């Protein structure tokens, strides 16, 4: 469309320019003949012979016939042998125009297929009167050929430009569609079950490169979710098989005992209580499994929060459990610590860690929760002794603020929340497995599902935090939660 919108006007201009050039040339030649026409009364034979010779020579050289007419429309001089030939309509109209004292008009265009000759006429004026006219009849085949040649060159150039545009468009389309083809192939592989399929990145327009990166990230999340689901189903089926089998055996034994004569009520009651305990254990396992599935697939966005305030709020909640088991809760560290996380997720992770610490700590034991920024401070005075915050008769919930009165502004690298208990701890070779699903230490003396620490790890890592488990300085288990810092300038 662009080439046509440019080429058609240009071709029209070429045809018009050729018509104007031809008409201008004819009118210039006729002006020379007009000045030499011997219409004066005293014109001699020499002038007449000279004019006729020039007209003949002009027709021989250029193939253009020129005829001189008088005011009565009679042919007086001509370059061909039969000047009395009848005029065609074009010649008659041109002669009328010249005898009226006007010049013939220019043709609009000369097309390559035109074969009608160009008729031009100019009046012969003597003493202010039109005494005759000079009429020329010019063939236009040469001009038409020139138009055809120029049109051919223009069409050839436009064809070259079109071929180049098509080649460029094809190359551009292939460049644009190649990443789309890779995306289609990878999507087909994933839909066929190959979750490891990925799209090669680094080529194509920026928008498609971003799409490739987003597609790969989506594929990673999909693969992780499917693998987690498979692992969850496998672990759940493994963990539920034994408790369910035990419950069925107890129910069967209870049924048999009820039908046997002589079975004491105490024995029946004991069997019922054992079956009830197995059912409760199975229900608890299912509840924790549902909680783990929930935290893995939902969550609020990370926001700016005071991690120390969340810790204090959860410690207040767990004071009742600590009082019932006569366990001391000790709070150390700073009073305020800004971090980037979700308050609900952090509270859930702390609940799981504190539940585990209180469950395995002995009566009269201590669970210490320390909140500190990950930053370097200059040396500070020795820490003062903990100050009890709870009243007499309750567990000692202690707080210790270590910030100096006017501390320098540190380079914020997040917040550490450390929970340490003085329970039996875990063997060094088993520490990496503490946060695995359904894993429980063989030496554990408490009933559990083995899902609490896995839930805590999932909740902390939801917003790029981390959880590490190791052995405390005085035994027991130490769980360290790292919360990412607040982005941007402080």
Automatic annotation (TrEMBL):
Residues 235-487 form the Histidine kinase domain. Residues 174-227 form the HAMP domain. Keywords: Kinase, Membrane, Phosphoprotein, Transferase, Transmembrane, Transmembrane helix, Two-component regulatory system. One of its GO terms (molecular function) is kinase activity. Its main location: membrane. InterPro entries: HAMP_dom, HATPase_C_sf, HATPase_dom, His_kinase_dom, HisK_dim/P_dom, HisK_dim/P_sf, Sig_transdc_His_kin-like_C, TCS_sensor_his_kinase. This is histidine kinase. The lineage of its organism: Bacteria, Bacillati, Actinomycetota, Actinomycetes, Kineosporiales.
């Amino acid at each position: 469309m662009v080439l046509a919108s440019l080429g058609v006007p240009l071709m029209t201009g070429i045809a018009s320019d050729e018509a104007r050039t031809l008409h201008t040339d004819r009118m210039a030649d006729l002006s020379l003949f007009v000045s030499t026409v011997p219409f004066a009364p005293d014109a001699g034979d020499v002038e007449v012979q000279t004019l006729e010779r020039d007209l003949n020579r002009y027709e021989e050289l250029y193939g253009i016939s020129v005829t001189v007419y008088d005011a009565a429309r009679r042919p007086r001089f001509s370059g061909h042998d039969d000047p009395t030939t009848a005029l065609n309509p074009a010649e008659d109209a041109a002669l009328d125009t010249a005898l009226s004292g006007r010049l013939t008009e220019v043709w609009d265009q000369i097309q390559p297929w035109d074969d009608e000759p160009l008729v031009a006429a100019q009046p012969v004026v003597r003493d202010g009167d039109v005494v005759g006219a000079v009429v020329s009849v010019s063939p236009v085949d040469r001009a038409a050929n020139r138009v055809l040649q120029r049109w051919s060159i223009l069409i050839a150039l436009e064809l070259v430009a079109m071929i180049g545009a098509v080649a460029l468009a094809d190359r551009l389309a292939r460049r644009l569609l190649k990443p789309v083809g890779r995306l289609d192939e990878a999507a087909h592989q994933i839909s066929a079950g190959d979750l490891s399929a990925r799209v090669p990145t680094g080529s194509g327009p920026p928008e498609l490169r971003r799409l490739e990166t987003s597609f790969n990230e989506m594929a990673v999340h999909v693969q992780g979710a499917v693998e987690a689901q498979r692992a969850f189903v496998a672990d759940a089926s493994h963990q539920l098989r034994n408790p369910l089998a035990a419950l069925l055996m107890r129910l069967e034994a209870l049924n048999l005992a009820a039908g046997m004569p002589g079975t004491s009520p105490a024995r029946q009651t004991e069997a019922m209580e054992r079956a009830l305990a197995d059912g409760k254990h199975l229900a608890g396992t299912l509840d924790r499994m549902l909680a783990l599935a929930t935290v893995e697939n939902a969550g609020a966005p990370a926001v700016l929060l005071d991690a120390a305030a969340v810790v204090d709020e959860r410690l207040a909640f767990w004071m009742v459990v600590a009082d019932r088991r006569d366990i001391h809760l000790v709070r150390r560290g700073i009073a305020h610590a800004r971090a980037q996380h979700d308050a609900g997720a952090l509270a859930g992770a702390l609940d799981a860690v504190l539940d585990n610490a209180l469950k395995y700590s002995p009566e009269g034991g201590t669970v210490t929760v320390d909140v500190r920024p990950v930053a370097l401070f200059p040396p500070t005075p020795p820490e003062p002794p903990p100050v009890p915050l709870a009243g007499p008769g309750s567990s000692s919930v202690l707080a210790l603020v270590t910030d100096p009165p006017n501390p320098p502004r540190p380079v914020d690298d997040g917040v550490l929340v450390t929970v340490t208990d003085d329970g039996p701890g875990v063997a060094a070779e088993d520490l990496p497995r503490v946060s695995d699903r359904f894993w429980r230490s063989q030496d554990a003396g408490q009933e559990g599902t083995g899902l609490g620490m896995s839930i805590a790890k999932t909740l902390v890592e939801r917003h790029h935090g981390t959880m590490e488990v190791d052995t405390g300085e005085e035994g027991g288990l130490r769980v360290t939660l790292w919360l990412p810092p607040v982005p941007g300038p402080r």
